[in-house]
C-alpha cells in the first residue's frame, strides 16, 4: 500500500485519545470556535543501544494496543533502474521471517482479532497493527522478527510471487485507473533525472520485473537497521513492563549502517512545460499545474498549505467562484501543497466537464488568480481554516492507531514525537501576509508543469502547444495465466543465534469485551434518540437519519433524493453555499447530507462546546434548503459530470451492473443510487421540493456519540424535534423479483483494461433474517479480507490480484452475497476457475478447525469495534435500524460460539450454491472474451452474454 506524505494530517479524521491532555478554551465570540490554549500528547521516549527510538503512550479506554514501526526509507532511497524497491520491500516484509512461520503476518493477525497493514511513500515506510491486548506479545515477536530477522528467509519463488502482487497493485491503482499516469508524467518532468523524486513510489513494471535477490538484500542492509527506525506503542499497556518487553524483543537486533539524512533538494523550473496524454479510462478532461515549492518543516510549508485552502478549498474561494460558478467549466476545483522531506509541490487540479477545452479552463484559472491578487486573503476564510484545525487535531489522535502514527512519524521525520502540537501552533500563527508572500514567491508568474489528460480521441481538448507525454504501458495479452508463480518451498537458512528465546509467545489474558453503555430516549413528537456518552476527546459525532431512501423513487425520478441531498449541502434559504460553509467552519464543525437506498442522513462532527450552534445550522439545512434555480442547475451539472466520469471506472461499472443483474433494472435496488444521465437530466426544481417533502414525512432518528451527557443532548434536541413532523414511511417496499440470471456468465468490454474485475454472487438474506448472522460467520473464512481463502489463494499463493474478498452488505431487504476481485488480465480464466472451485468446495470441506478460526477471529475483533466515535455511531445505527438489543454484539458472539460445524456447512450449502451464482467480468474483450467463453462452456453455464457499461445486452 502506498501513501503520499509522512505526516498524514487531516486524512486521518475519524481515527481515542486517552493520554491526551484536555484543553481549556480561551474567550470567544458567540458562534465562533477558538483554538485551545494548550494541547499536549502524553508519551515516554527511550532509545535502545542499537539505535531504535521507542515511543510509549498509555490509553486504557479499550483493551487494545497499536504497534507502529516507521522506517526512514522510502522511494527517495532508491536508485535509477531499481525504482519501486521501497514499496516492493514493504510487501516482502509481510512474508515469513526466521522465527515467524510463513503467512502468519498476513493471516494470523486478523485471526487473532487484529488489523494490520503497511504503507510506503516518497520518504518512508510504515508497518502497523492494532490487536486485542492478549496478542500484544505476539505482535512484538512478529514486528521485531520482521525488522531484524527476515532477510535470510527470502527465496526466489517468494520474490517472484510478490513481484506479481505489486504489479497487480500498479495495474489496479495506476494502469487501469483514469488519470493514473499523471503522477509519473509530473515527476519525470518536474524533477531532473536522478533526483530522488523523479520516479513514482510504485516505480515501473520493468524495474520490478528485473529485481533480484541480491538487490533486495542490498536494500535491506542499507536501510532497515533499527537505528533508521522508530517504534511506537499506544494502548492498554503498563509502561515498565512494556519497556522490558521491547528491550527483549528488539534489543538484540544488530545496529545497521548509518543512514545519512538527505539534504533539501528543491528544484527550480526555468521554463514552463506542457504535456498531454490520451487516457484510455478518463471520460473527462483534467488539467493540473504543478509548481516546485519547499520541503516539509520549511518555514513556508504551513502558509503554502493554507494558501491551497484559500485559493480553492471553499465555495468562497477565487477558483471556485470563477471556474465553477461564473464560467461553469468544472463541478469543483482543487489546490494543495505537498511538501515532502527534501522538496515540495503546489498543485492546481481541475477536472472539467465533458467536452470542455482545457485552454478555457487555464484562462479561467488565470482570471481567478488575478482576482485573488487584487482582493487578497479573506479574513473570515483564514479564521474559518484556523477554527477547523482544532477538530482536525483531535481527530488525528482519536484512536490508538492514529495517535501511534503521529508519534512515530513526528519523531522519525521531525525529531519530535509531538510534532503535531507544533503544526497546530504554526497554523494558528499564519497571517494573511504570510499567505500572500508564499503566493508571490512560489506561484505568481512562476513556470510550472502543465498536464492535460483527455479522453481517448479528444486531443483537441488539451492545452495548446502541449507535447505528448510518454509513459511505459503494459501490453495486454491473451492466453493462460503466464508468469505463473507460487510461494515455493520454504528456504533453507541458518537461524541467527540470540540470547533471548524468539519462539512464539503465548497469548496473554483474554480481554473482556463489553459494549459501551447506551442510552435511549423518545421526544414528544416520537423522534427516537440513541446515544453513547464518551469524554475521551472534546468532540461529538451525531446524525439525523431519515427512513426515506432512494427505494421510494419512481423509475423516472431515479437519482432525485441523491441530488436533493447534494443540494442541501449547498446553502439554505438565508445563507448561500459559501456563507453556510463558512458558518460551519467557524464552529470547527463538519456537516454532510447524504442518501442511501434505505435512508438518508445528515452526519455531523463538532466540538462539544459548539454542539448547540451546530445543531441550529443542521436544523436550518433540513427545514430551509436553498431551492434556487442557479444553485440547482450547478449541482445537477456536477452530478451529470460525476456520472460521466464513472463510465471509465471498471469497478463502479461492475458494482452497478451486478445489482441490475440481481434485482433487475425495474427494481429500486437495481437502479443506480445517483440515477442515470437521462433520469438526472430530466429532474426539475419541483422534483427537489417533492423529494424534500417526502423526506420530512419519513421517520426520523438521531444517533449521538461523544462528550455530551444524555440530559444535555435531550434538552438541546427538544426544540429541534418540535419542528419536525416525524411522519411514517411513505412507500411500500417492493418484492424482490425472481432470480433470472442464476448460473449465467456476463462480460462487459472496457478496451485496453490491464485487469479484469470479477464479481460472483447470488441473492441471500436481509440483515433482519434469522440466519443473517450465521451466513456472515460462515463467509468469514472464505472471504473475510486478506486472511480469507480468496485472498490467501489468489494473492498470496498465485499472485494474480492485489486483493479479493466476499460478503453480504447490510439491509432490510434480501441482499446479495458476492465475491469480488480485480486480477491481471491474462489470469482471468484461471482466477474464475479457482473461485468457482473454492465456492463449490467450501461447505463440504469446512471442518472443526475452520470453525475455531472463525470464532476466534470474529470474537476477538470486537475488542476494536467501539473505539472511535464513528464506530460508536455505527453501533447505534445498527441498533435502531434493525431493532437490535443494546447488547447485540454480545448476543451475536454467543450465537457464534454456540454454532456447531454442521451449521456452517448448512449455511454454505443453502446460500453459497455455486451453480446458482451469477458471474460478471469487466475487462478487455479483445484478449479475454474467448477465455471467459471457454470457462463458461467448461463449467456448463452456457454462452457468455455481452453487456455494455450500462448493463444493456450487446447485439452481435
TrEMBL record:
One of its GO terms (molecular function) is peptidase activity. Keywords: Hydrolase, Metalloprotease, Protease, Signal. Residues 54-172, 533-641 form the Peptidase M16 N-terminal domain. SUPFAM superfamilies: LuxS/MPP-like metallohydrolase. Residues 1-25 form the signal peptide. PANTHER family: METALLOPROTEASE (PTHR11851), MITOCHONDRIAL-PROCESSING PEPTIDASE SUBUNIT ALPHA (PTHR11851:SF49). Belongs to the peptidase M16 family. This is Zinc protease.
